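Budget justification aside, the reviewers requested a transparent look at the raw inputs and outputs of the sequence design task funded under Objective 1. We therefore reproduce one unedited record. The lines immediately below are the structure tokens for a 268-residue chain.
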């Protein structure tokens, strides 16, 4: 698959593709980067990080590697739509990079390797990653290193309850139902019930999980709700009802965090 066809398929911004075409990199140089990616991942990261246009270089390398992954999807009989849906994440993170730094490229390159390595797939609304548990979870009889499926929630679309259930049923068909399905996200924080309508999609999504623990040191909720993190909650905007409710909750001493949850399989 050509680079142009890949970028068109994932919906990469046209201006971003134009920037990619300006990159001066030979096939020999790309081959060296590719070899480094598979042989020494940390050196691959550090070598590109040392380049002046490192974000654009990461975008170039990841798009090339992802385009080459198409044949692997074909060999494994993975539906073509899953391929495009999975790698559309590159387009999403490219726009996030532009919005944050004013340049096209990738800042989340230490996240996107999962897609390249075929350990993460998007099945409908949700992403599913084959992984090992980084720690023991005694309440769920999960040992450190046990195989698990990590659930991720890509941005850009409404978190529909029905779409989420459909994704999970699809994942059960692909990965099986016996393996634990875990999700760690600010969207699972139980405290959100204090600022959201009881019929909100987020609270409906939460109902699919048993919450194991919450890390209140994380402030990802504030970043997602307000766009950035302020030391003083008084400075947060009040442009939406969620922002107004969340700001009031924080000023009254409330907190949000990231919660770890496990799918309630008896619901399916």
């Amino acid at each position: 698959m050509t680079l142009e066809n890949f970028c068109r398929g994932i919906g990469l911004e046209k201006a971003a593709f134009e920037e990619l075409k300006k990159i001066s990199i030979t096939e020999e140089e790309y081959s060296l980067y590719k070899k480094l990616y598979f042989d020494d991942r940390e050196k691959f990261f550090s070598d590109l990080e040392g380049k002046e246009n490192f974000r654009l270089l990461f975008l170039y390398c990841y798009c090339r590697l992802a385009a080459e992954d198409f044949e692997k999807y074909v060999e494994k009989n993975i539906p073509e739509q899953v391929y495009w849906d999975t790698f559309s994440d590159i387009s999403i993170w490219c726009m996030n990079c532009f919005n944050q730094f004013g340049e096209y490229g990738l800042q989340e390159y230490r996240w996107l390797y999962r897609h390249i390595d075929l350990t993460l797939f998007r099945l409908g609304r949700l992403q599913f990653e084959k992984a090992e548990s980084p720690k023991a979870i005694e309440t769920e009889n999960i040992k450190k290193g046990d195989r698990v499926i990590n659930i991720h929630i890509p941005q850009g679309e409404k978190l529909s309850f029905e779409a989420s259930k459909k994704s999970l049923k699809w994942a059960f068909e692909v990965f099986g139902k016996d393996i634990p399905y875990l999700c760690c996200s600010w969207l699972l924080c139980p405290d959100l019930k204090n600022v959201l309508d009881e019929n909100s999609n987020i609270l409906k999504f939460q109902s699919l999980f048993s919450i194991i623990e919450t890390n209140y040191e994380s402030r990802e909720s504030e970043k997602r709700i307000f766009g950035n993190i302020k030391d003083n909650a008084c400075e947060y905007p009040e442009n939406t009802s969620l922002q107004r409710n969340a700001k009031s909750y924080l000023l009254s001493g409330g907190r949000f965090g990231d919660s770890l949850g496990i799918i309630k399989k008896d619901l399916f």
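The longest helix spans residues 54-75. The beta strands are 120-123, 126-132, 147-152, 181-185, 209-215, 258-263. Computational costs for records of this kind are itemized in the attached budget.
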